[in-house]
Amino acid sequence: MVAQTFEQHCSWLEDQVPDENLKAAGLRFDSGSSIALLKIQESEVWSLLLTTLTEWDDAYFRDTGGYKLFASSDRPKLVRKPFDSLLDKAYRKNVLMNPNWPEPPEDGWVTQETWYAKTNDIIRTTVVVKYMDGVDYFTTAAGQLCDSLGLGHTVDLEARAEGYYAAHFYVPQIIDIPRTNWDTESVPLRLEIQVTTQLQDAIRKLTHEGYVSRRSVEKPAEQWQWDYKDANFAPNYLGHILHYIEGMIMEIRDRGRVS
Known about the structure:
Largest sheet: 5 strands, mixed
Order of helices and strands: HHHEHHEHEEEHH
Number of helices: 8
Strand content: 15-25%
Shape: flat
Helix content: 40-55%
CATH topology: Beta Polymerase, domain 2
Structural class: alpha+beta
CATH class: Alpha Beta
Radius of gyration: 20 Å
Number of domains: 1
């Protein structure tokens, strides 16, 4: 049975793969995720996406009557998930956020054998748009780009009780990564593009460090919505308030275009 504390969960993970401790598993993951990062950086879809960002920005400018799509002219950069963060996410999926615990989650345990397939953000990037409608504008354009290349893609619109709002655009990949014997195997992996607004990105940066420190050590309080002293109360509701404000900004902007 999977134990409840993070340390016990790490010990349990080591038992899932004979003759490989977590230090060795971490080295293997770092090698595999580095290979995945390089392959995606060199992929046609990533290269085309970077070169067409300016075109999308110009098209949005024309379509909206003079508004910019992106919050910055900087190109998005791919990053890979650190091993410590991967362990944290496995613990949250297996234990903290698992309503079936101590039984497996609905889609099975996250272990060394499955975390490439079950962890969405091993290779990820963030795109920050200025306005709320830019989220759909970008994901639609990115979807059309994938369609032109014959690539599958999915979009998840995240709207969590914790005040997190963003779109997650996924492009499936097949990557050759090291096995325990350092031979290679092909595994499914998804490139994640997080698409968020300028306001949501700002609040996420302000509150992210505290959120990370809390989420890996405690189950979320079921009644934090009624406890204004709870550490989750202010940052979570600030996320909701900003989302509402962004909707009001869009309404005023659109009303100005019509008048």
